[in-house]
Design goal:
The protein has about 290 residues and is an all-alpha fold. The protein has helices spanning about 1-40, 65-75, 75-80, 85-95, 105-120, 140-150, 185-190, 195-200, 205-215, 220-230, 240-289. It contains 11 helices and no strands. The chain is elongated.
Length: about 290
């Protein structure tokens, strides 16, 4: 009896330890799934916030069984090419846009994401409902502020970098913007309006943007101003980009000509300073002969 009474606390401690490990593992798995969803899925999908580029995923498990959903997440294009009716319906709703293969997707990760979506679907408001952005008409001040943020004359609240270092839009003057990343002139049109573009700006999906803005996100007022500005850039002047490129080429050529001229001035004098003594010495030799 004594042995049994002594072993009981040990068994209880082990049970508590195992339960704690299981809970910690489940929490870590859920957190990893949440981080992955935020970085890779939120720019196209919400959970309870309505459709973006892709469908709202609230209660998605009630629309298709889990095996189908996992298979689609692993190979969206392959599922569409099989002629699956529901995959074809998703393609029509997305206006022909095929969901890309998501980096790092695996069967285990797909299962974790579906667990996350099921859990978030039960909440009154999911953390992935998407950004809430005003639907009021844009003002000229919104547009002006968006441009100031784009070119960097107004600093972002969280100290993120300006867009102009990598992107361009029309009407910037001078050399225009950067060319390392896509031209954003028609980004409002490509993302089909205010809600989708605002969600993308609040949670960028590209690896470069993620690494830059994950710890320095735009606040809702900045997102609204940027969306207003990108709607404005649709009224573009096709000559703006070509003019900026021409300015760059002409100034580049002018700089090259100026540099060659400076080389000629300095190196020509240096060449003569060496050549004259040699010619003079050669003449003296001929005279002595």
């Amino acid at each position: 009896m004594r042995r049994a009474s002594r072993s009981a606390p040990n068994i209880l401690r082990r049970v508590v330890y195992v339960a704690a490990v299981v809970l910690a593992t489940a929490h870590a798995r859920a957190q990893e799934a949440a981080d992955y969803f935020r970085q890779n899925c939120l720019s196209c999908h919400t959970i309870g916030g309505g459709r973006l580029s892709g469908p709202d995923l609230k209660n998605v498990s009630s629309r298709k069984d889990r095996a189908w959903l996992v298979k689609f997440m692993l190979d969206p294009k392959g599922m569409i090419e099989t002629g699956d009716p529901y995959a074809a319906e998703l393609l029509r709703d997305a206006r022909g846009t095929v969901m890309p293969l998501v980096a790092g997707m695996s069967r285990q990760r797909a299962e974790s994401l579906l667990d996350l979506i099921d859990a978030e679907s039960l909440l009154d408001k999911s953390q992935f409902v998407g950004i809430t952005i005003s639907d009021r008409p844009f003002t000229q001040r919104d547009i002006d502020l968006g441009k100031e943020i784009f070119v960097g004359t107004t600093s972002l609240t969280n100290a993120g970098p300006s867009c102009i270092s990598c992107h361009t839009v029309p009407g910037l003057g001078g050399f225009g913007g950067g060319t390392l990343a896509p031209d954003l002139t028609t980004v409002f049109e490509r993302y089909e309006g205010r809600k989708t573009l605002a969600t993308w700006l609040s949670a960028p999906a590209t690896p470069t943007m993620q690494s830059v803005y994950k710890s320095k996100p735009l606040d809702p007022d900045e997102v609204l101003a940027m969306v207003a500005y990108f709607q404005h850039t649709l009224q573009r002047n096709p000559e703006d980009a070509s003019t900026a490129r021409l300015n760059f080429v002409l100034i580049g050529l002018g700089g090259a000509v100026l540099l060659l001229g400076l080389f000629d001035v300095f190196w020509n004098k240096r060449f003569r300073a060496v050549r004259r003594p040699l010619i003079h010495a050669s003449k003296l030799e001929k005279t002595h002969e």
